[in-house]
Amino acid sequence: MSAEHKKRLSRIIRDGRVMLLAMDQGLEHGPRDFNAKNINPEYVLDIACKGGFTGLAIQKGIAYHYKENYSGKVPLILKLNGRTNIVPKESIYSSQVATVKEAVKLDADAIGYTLYVGSPHEAQMFHDFGMIRAECEEYGMPSIVWAYPRGQYVKDEKDPAVVAYAARCALELGADIVKVNYTGSTESFKQVVAAAQRCKVISAGGSKQTDAEFIAKAKEVMDAGAIGFAVGRNVWQNEHPLEMAAKLKKVVFGR
Q1: Angle, CA 15 vertex, CA 14 and CA 20 arms, to 5°
Q2: Does pTM surpass 0.90?
């Protein structure tokens, strides 16, 4: 790991913990996830800057158009691939839409890449990430993999064994951090953390839940040995997003 790699990673992993705010839903899910307030990226970016987050995960269009809203205030994780939810899950593929070089130009501290383990296009995504990972080495750029079991060969996306396999894939392919879906219990999520070993595990926030449900899940995730969260809708869809961010921060950082 180069000195530049370590420096960038230290901005995202603070005191051994990670708390990312994700806003890639506009591409991945479409307008259905937004209301009149949070459809404006400025609203969500303001939450990222004020909510104590250690990183912001967005696609390059948001990064380019709204750089003045987040630059120097919260570290950028630039998503390098994406898709819409119009294509059926059975043949799911997330194509590369940005490069590591673009991430460097945008002053990103890490890149994000979604990998669908079990998709018919798994081999192509492995290849794509392999090329991206090699480029990351050249620039000293950390990588975060969104590892989701999904596609016609996956019967249960949250089966602990399958999620653990996806996490292990991220380790084997060289990711620094892997984001996975929660498996439903502390004990089952420990299997995921064990599979990932030195590739640090963070949990996806998932679909909108009640505050109590989400915080309870957050405690279970941290008890399992994960280092944090990449949360989106459970914060910026909340009526009091900064209060929700403060509650999550207390669980993740213990203060």
Answers
A1: 35
A2: yes
